[in-house]
Amino acid sequence: MDNLDKKLLYEQIDYFQLQRHDFLNYFQVIKGYIQLNMPEKALDYLDQTITELVPQQLIYKISQKTLIAILLGLFFRLRMKGVNMSIDIPQEMREDEYRQNNWQEEYAEQFYG
Known about the structure:
Layout: H1 3-35, H2 39-59, H3 65-80, H4 96-102, H5 105-112
């Protein structure tokens, strides 16, 4: 495992812990709304939460794993600072052929860097 991959792996573990904590909070808020007989509030909160996760879902559609890890790191760092991220992934970047024909590992070092 090279140095960049190791850094990205450790970052992803940290972000996973953060996301796990956030999800537990989301569930507690939704449960509270339901217990207070406020289903509309629960649904609104759920919709808001789903909207916040859209950029993360789009990042996972990229076919190159290192680039996914780099962009997810950016997503979480921005989110921790209260900055919303939007991303548009071209269809060709979602296909394995793109990764095989266009990606070079040096790109990761430069992009992360």
